[in-house]
Specification:
Serine Threonine Protein Phosphatase 5, Tetratricopeptide repeat, mainly alpha, 614 residues
């Protein structure tokens, strides 16, 4: 029985109510990496999305094309993205109902409602970046539905008497399914598990698999999925940074992580309490016997369900779908977010469908009024929990504060919250969180660097020197740390000690204008004026719109007696800062020395009017 309009309307209405707090929320964490950046907003930028690796955080060109179009429609306004994410999610829930009904699975509409309202899905729906989950699932379920239609037509053709002549129309659902599968893969690579999921469905239906009937038609999909998964894993390592000491797990440790993750996800799905944006990152220890209980327990559950297959194959099929869909994020492949945690709610968005379908079918088997009451209470409870869960995604401060309440040992949340406080002009408060992050993760140079910057802002420059030096010990090629350490040493009255740090910064980042400026300033303090001017000039070439750099060049030229050049630079500074009295004053003095008294008088009067103090 197909999905009827009022059932779909109920799912959409329920989702909109449950996610109402998210629709009015702002942006969080890495949303700026997904809401199309200025350099990608043109037609040329759209081409880069498709044909240039690294133009976007991950190579999901269909997803980023959708974001490109959305930005054309409503720009940077977060409400549009949030609302669309809810729409994609509700649409996926409706497609789930249609797929389950085509498979004759009881409780299909209840499954759609449970999925639409389950709080484990909140992270995927309330977080703009995770449109890759909601959009890809629409394509995934659309592909599954078209493929099941292809299988149905093929079965009808095979049973016809006399046999029907082959026709290209019979391939139309297959072609449509393949196109939708490709769109899903190019939105998020975890959808590569679809052909394996379809094989699980066919095994559940018939108790066996036929190579010719079930496996062979899906062989191209299996190849596409494998290629997509391997390519995505390579991109994760090469462009996102999922390699290094934090990913040095042995084969046994990866099995331990996977076993524990399966039980974690199943537990959160069945009892969605204490959900968090960043969960504690456990340590995989092959020497701890108790950790082997997780993978052994998973194998024992699979063995038990295998024994029960003659009575019912549904529980084993649901488990195979659940684990198989989770497989790309269970720890066997490196995922950058493993540096924070081995588990995340959004990683089980797709996988949850198997358990949701099984649970809904079980509830549908409860006869009469008790079954309806139980289902109603469950749906209401899930919707209420999701409504409350949306609150933590309202804005960045709320997200980090809630995360730290639920997981105070999250060094990422401590560090990012500190960054936010520092950006808000609250460096003294930020320092406490930076120090907490360093206690939890002392080997991350970025945290030491950010702490040093906050210390400088609060006047604790001598303490900042030690933090910059620690950042450089951990990462000797950290150009920004060299540059800021040099600037701090100059401010502390030691330009000679600062010089090698500026030189090192430029060795690693010759295009860093602040390092050029700092080196110029240190050289000028050391009396090496001509070399300083050359560095200032290069800094201005790298950042021609930076008034401070150009002003320093103008002053150095004036001090060197190159007054005509100084005047030209002062005039360019005034185009950028026309109301700066000090620039007017210095320009006036340079003009007076050149004997251009009328012009000089005008500039000095402007300086006096604007309030220069000399």
């Amino acid at each position: 029985m197909p999905l009827i309009a009022w059932e779909c309307a109920v799912i959409f209405a329920a989702a909109l109510v449950a996610y109402l707090p998210a629709i009015g929320a702002g942006t969080i964490w890495n949303d700026s990496d997904y809401i199309t950046r200025p350099e990608l907003r043109s037609l040329h930028g759209l081409g880069r999305i498709w044909f240039q690796l690294g133009a976007t955080e991950q190579y999901y060109p269909v997803l980023h094309s959708a974001f490109w179009l959305e930005h054309r429609l409503w720009g940077d306004r977060a409400t549009g993205y949030h609302l669309l994410n809810v729409v994609w999610h509700a649409m996926a829930a409706c497609l789930l109902v249609v797929v389950l009904r085509r498979l004759a699975i009881a409780g299909a509409w209840l499954a759609g409602l449970i999925f639409a309202l389950h709080p484990v899905c909140v992270e995927s729906v309330a977080w703009i970046s995770e449109q890759k989950n909601t959009l890809s699932l629409v394509f995934y379920l659309g592909a599954a539905l078209a493929y099941l239609r292809f299988v149905e037509r093929r079965g009808q053709a095979a049973s016809a008497t006399p046999p029907r002549r082959s026709s290209t129309s019979g391939l139309t659902p297959y072609v449509l399914a393949t196109v939708l599968f490709l769109l899903a893969l190019l939105s998020k690579s975890v959808t590569a598990t679809l052909p394996a999921a379809l094989l699980v469905v066919f095994w559940w239906q018939r108790g066996r698999l036929s190579w010719r009937r079930e496996v062979l038609p899906l062989a191209p999909w299996l190849a596409l999925g494998a290629a997509s998964g391997l390519f995505s894993a390579w991109v994760e390592r090469a462009y996102v940074g999922a390699e290094g000491v934090n990913f040095g797990l042995s084969g046994v440790e990866r099995i331990l992580v996977a076993g524990r993750a399966v039980w974690f996800y199943l537990g959160k799905l069945l009892w969605p309490a204490h959900l968090a944006f960043i969960y504690p990152r456990w340590q995989a220890n092959s020497a701890a016997p108790w950790q082997y209980l997780f993978p052994l327990g998973a194998l024992a559950l699979a063995a038990l369900l295998w024994r029960l297959r003659r009575r019912t194959r549904a529980p084993l099929a649901a488990l195979l779908f659940f684990v198989g869909s989770l497989f790309p994020t269970l720890g066997f492949f490196n995922v950058y977010a493993f540096v924070f945690s081995y588990v995340a709610d959004h990683w089980q968005y797709l996988a949850s469908l198997g358990v949701v379908a099984l649970a809904a079918a079980g509830l549908a088997a409860v006869p009469g009024r008790p079954g309806r009451i139980l289902a109603g209470v469950l749906v209401l409870a899930l919707g209420t929990l999701s409504f409350r869960q949306c609150g933590m995604y309202r804005d960045l401060p709320t997200l980090y504060q809630t995360t730290l309440e639920r997981n105070p040992d999250s060094w990422m949340a401590q560090s990012n919250f500190a960054n936010l406080l520092s950006q808000q002009g609250r460096p003294a408060e930020a320092i406490r969180h930076y120090e907490a992050a360093i206690r939890l993760a002392p080997t991350y140079p970025e945290i030491h660097y950010n702490l040093a910057d906050a210390l400088v802002k609060t006047g604790r420059s001598r303490e900042a020197v030690g933090q910059y030096e620690e950042a450089l010990r951990l990462r000797p090629d950290y150009a920004a740390a060299h540059a800021n350490l040099g600037t701090t040493l100059v401010a502390l009255g030691d330009p000679a000690a600062a010089l090698p740090h500026f030189e090192q910064a430029l060795r690693f980042r010759p295009d860093l204008p602040q390092a050029r400026y700092g080196l110029g300033f240190a050289l000028e303090q050391a009396g090496r004026r001509s070399e300083a001017i050359a560095q200032y000039a290069e800094a201005v070439r790298l950042a021609p719109g930076d008034a401070t750099l150009r002003y320093s060049l103008a002053n150095a030229l004036g001090n060197a007696g190159r007054l005509d050049e100084a005047v030209a630079q002062y005039r360019m500074v005034l185009r950028l800062r026309p109301a700066d009295p000090d620039v007017h004053y210095n320009l006036g003095m340079a003009l007076r020395e050149l004997g251009r008294t009328t012009e000089a008088r005008g500039e000095l009067e402007s300086a006096a009017r604007l309030g220069a103090h000399h």
